[in-house]
Design brief:
By secondary structure, the chain is an all-alpha fold. The protein has 15 helices and three strands. A three-stranded antiparallel sheet has the order 1-3-2. Bound molecules: iron/sulfur cluster. Pfam families: EndIII_4Fe-2S, HHH, HhH-GPD.
């Protein structure tokens, strides 16, 4: 099924509007500045997955101050890596980033490789991160698709309120078709389109309250032309619950371990500030952290990896 609405504009009309808006309105983020290294871009892309910019900024700055290169990151103790990661969530990302840095040291002379294929071959680097780093750090015209870009595509070209949970084959095809031609400018416009569509989704075309009144493509947007219909049931995604989840309990355990000192298993589990979490849930979460190599246990004491 085509992802194009009959009301969809021609992509060539949309590109210059969104790119022009980005040039004037984009946030000044350190990983977008010309002096930022490819490693800085990669760290930002991993941190920004499922985590808002405001929480990432101080962690990114601290990370880059301590470990400005893949080589420095590869040599860092895992306990420090997890401490600097702090409360960004999904801390396995931090260990995967370090594993990727180690592979760069082993296979790429400590440099971030410059193509999406090489990036994807690194441990823990998926399709999105590889494409984003190749595009934003190396100017490669890869097709970058995150949730913000998917939403912009869905509204402007498919006339849908939301793109739905799954990245479908039709959406993938649409994303490829929407990329600007690359022959005339070595992909500069294509890379700018990636960054601009992402920023438009983050700032203007947000999931809950799109600001169509100040949007640079309001008069072209298929969703607006269709009368801004509400999302269908299939397009809606449930917000992720936090309170009471294993993620919350794992986060509380990690917060205790980041204090640095080894702690007795019983003291750790009983001392969590989560009265509603059952003993069984606490044990399950600690055991899962041990399995994920985010913590280690010896003689009944638990700590971040490498501390005991
Ligand atoms: S007009 Fe509204 S829905 Fe369309 S792209 Fe802009 S903000 Fe999004």
């Amino acid at each position: 099924m085509s992802a194009y609405s009959s009301l969809a504009p021609h992509p060539a009309e949309v590109h210059p509007r969104v790119i022009g808006w980005f040039e004037e309105q984009a946030r000044d983020l350190p990983w977008r500045r010309p002096e930022c290294t490819s490693w800085g871009v990669m760290v930002s892309e991993v941190m920004l997955q499922q985590t808002p910019v405001g929480r990432v900024l101080p962690r990114w700055e601290e990370w880059m101050r301590r470990w400005p290169t893949p080589t420095a990151t590869a040599a860092a103790p895992a306990s420090e890596i997890l401490t600097v990661w702090d409360r960004l969530g999904y801390p396995r990302r931090a260990l995967r980033l370090q594993a990727a840095a180690q592979a760069m040291v082993d296979q790429h002379d400590g440099e971030v490789p410059g193509t999406a294929d090489e990036l994807r071959a690194l441990p823990g680097v998926g399709e999105y991160t590889a494409a984003a780093v190749a595009s934003f750090a190396f100017g490669q015209p890869e097709v970058v698709v995150d949730t913000n870009i998917r939403r912009v595509h869905a509204r402007v070209f498919s006339g849908a309120a939301l793109p739905g949970k799954t990245y479908t084959a039709a959406q993938r095809k649409l994303a490829h078709e929407l990329m600007p031609e690359t022959a005339h400018d070595q992909g500069r416009e294509a890379c700018a389109w990636n960054a601009s569509a992402m920023e438009l989704g983050a700032l203007i075309c947000t999931a809950k309250s799109p600001q169509c009144a100040i949007c640079p493509v309001a008069d072209l947007c298929a969703w607006v032309a269709a009368g801004s219909p509400p999302p269908t049931e299939a397009q809606q995604t449930k917000g992720q619950a936090w309170a009471g989840t294993d993620r919350q309990v794992r986060g509380a355990i990690m917060a205790e371990l980041r204090k640095g000192e080894p702690v007795q298993r019983g003291t750790l589990l009983e001392g969590l500030p989560l009265p509603e979490a059952s003993e069984e849930q606490r044990i399950r979460c600690l055991d899962s952290l041990l399995r994920d190599d985010l913590a280690e246990e010896h003689d009944g004491r638990v700590a971040l990896p490498g501390v005991l």
